[in-house]
Write a structure and sequence with these properties.
The chain is built from 10 helices and 18 strands. By secondary structure, it is of the alpha/beta class. Bound molecules: zinc ion (2 copies). Keywords: Metal-binding, Oxidoreductase, Zinc.
Amino acid sequence: MKALVVRAAGLAPSVEEIRLPEVGAGQIRVRIRAAGVCHSDLSMVNGTLNPPYPLVLGHEAAGEVVEIGPDVTRVPVGAHVALNWSPPCRTCWFCENGEPWLCATANIAALENGSTLDGAPLQVALGLGAFAEEVVVPAHAVIEVPSSLAWESAALLGCAVLTGTGAVRNTAGVRSGDSVLVIGLGGVGLSVVAAARAAGASSVIAVDVSAAKKALAEAAGATDFIVSGDTLSKDVRVLTGGRGADHSFECVGRSGTIRAAWRATRRGGQVTVVGMGRGDDMVQLSALEIFSSARTLRASVYGSSDPDLEVPQLAQDVLTGALKLDHLVTDRITLAEVPVAFERMTRGEGARSVVTF
Ligand SMILES: [Zn+2]
Ligand SMILES: [Zn+2]
């Protein structure tokens, strides 16, 4: 079966035949039907993250269960599932204290699973490696979704939508009437925009370096759009009664945009960092400004969510029309076209590219 494999840092990923392991106890095999190209995939090939190689990319995906291990009762063969890249163990301190998104056993960058045809052990991104025709994963890394849900929607629920929606609802707790600033309009940022609007935000100011994102931002529910520049915090103040935004969401993962979000937030406001950046990219805040601004700076990991509970709820919202995802998918591609999708992402074009099988 075919998968998109990165052989080494800096090398372009290419489609290869690979060998998956047999389905063992506690595991299932899923035939992938749709897989979104997430910025974290790009981070694994452009040097931002340093995962081991050879590596199968892909973690935002949905598919059909085609085989289950002897003891698996979680899902039957034939079930439609979204993949979960941070499946909680339910037994560690974090899981038992209501923070399953910080599970001590999850969030591994890569896991050894399967091999290349020349016999090298393969790593799979975030324990999944979903840019592949099939995956073999732990049963608790899938969440059943209604069979009437479109594959593309099911895939996006597993990363961009859960992350963006959870950041607004769970991490930040945006309330009706709040003013909200969103910096970085990829799949996650656009999901933040939509969730903030749905939460009743009085204004949702969407910001990107690319002017071409304006139409996407407005389709997602933004009330204002600003091309990122030196006057950002002044521009945001003009739109927020001179104070700055009640909530800012940084969906890029860079010190410069974290600083920009911080500066454009009102005194006492809240800055939520959703983007994942480099280990050596330092954010500078003075001791005085931390005190005098009285702002809160926090991170949102996987939307501070419990995917087992929230993915099925979000799936229902999509089916009833309360949550619209159509505007998020701007390109439908093949596995071999993922590197082209990375180039679009680097240029700041489009929203999600989704590999369909
Ligand atoms: Zn992702
Ligand atoms: Zn745990």
